Amino acid sequence: MASALALSPTLLPLSRHRRSIFSPAAQIPLLSSIPRPHLLRGIVSLPLVPSGRVLWRVRAESTKQEREPMVPPFNVLITGSTKGIGLAFAKEFLKAGDNVVVCSRSAERVELTIKQLTEEFGEKHVWGTVCDVRKGEDVKALITFARDKLNYIDIWINNAGSNAYSYKPLAETADDDLMEVVTTNTIGVMICCREAINMMLNQPRGGHIFNIDGAGSDGRPTPRFAAYGATKQSVVHLTKSLQAELQMQDVKNVMVHNLSPGMVTTDLLMSGANTKQAKFFINILAEPPDVVAEYLVPSIRSVPSRQSMRPTYIRFLTGLKAYSQIFSRLAFGARRNRYVIED
């Protein structure tokens, strides 16, 4: 499902032109009382022994093992990849010659997607299975499936997300919709990160995990989909925390990154195009999934190609691009009624 939703005018204060609309908020300085990460590298736990001494356990498996260089074709796994931006990502990776595992909660959509992609790219490059990312047993089964088909995964993209197709004030939101949003966007990403890290730690080539952000990830308000915005900000925080954990443990073959597709014209986004403000910004800033994927996939593939293990934040809609398009609209009327008729 899509991971970027419509923005309200409150999300775009023109006076803050130096900050990307979709970039995370500035990092809060660490308190001086918190030990610096480089002093804690390798520490997994500090259990107390009877004598009162601290027993330091060092996790050294990933540092002792020589990491094999990552060279294409890459093995790629994308959650929520039977439609929208996830499916567009799958097509672009396949066009580049990579091997792809797609998944979805719907067995019917998985079957239709595999049929479509195999007809275009061949049976030896794409596989699919059912997976509900909210369930740990499903994600474990997904990894077993991926290993069976490809032996290892180089690139894992956490794309599955939900807004329960609900745009309304939080006070009017049903319990089921809240649970759908939070369990998919927060718990689901956590489970997938946990299982993907554990898998990649034992791979000679290591691996890269990309968590997709969305509206709200930079801390700006998301009225009418407050729960969604809160979960997307949590994704950015989760990614930073995992990066710090991997550094503390001196892991050198696994890295977690953020990926920002901006506003994508998926069913999820367009279902909220029912206000004047939403229509305005969708017409100005949104792009079709294939356009976004065509831009982002080469950037994603360049990370393992460079043999880089540094964290990255790859964005499609930068602040400069967004404000340029807004200016063109205000000055010349560009992009009016591009996707939806404005009032």
Automatic annotation (TrEMBL):
Family to which this protein belongs: Belongs to the short-chain dehydrogenases/reductases (SDR) family.
EC class: oxidoreductase
Any Pfam family the entry gives: adh_short
Annotated GO MF terms: chlorophyll(ide) b reductase activity
Matching CDD domains: SDR_c
Main localization (coarse): plastid
Keywords of this entry: Chlorophyll catabolism, Chloroplast, Membrane, NAD, Oxidoreductase, Plastid, Thylakoid, Transit peptide
Subcellular location: Plastid, Chloroplast thylakoid membrane
Keyword Zinc: no
Protein name listed in UniProt: chlorophyll(ide) b reductase
EC numbers for this chain: 1.1.1.294
One cellular-component annotation, GO: chloroplast thylakoid membrane
GO biological process, one term: chlorophyll catabolic process
Catalytic reactions of this protein: 7(1)-hydroxychlorophyllide a + NAD(+) = chlorophyllide b + NADH + H(+); 7(1)-hydroxychlorophyllide a + NADP(+) = chlorophyllide b + NADPH + H(+)
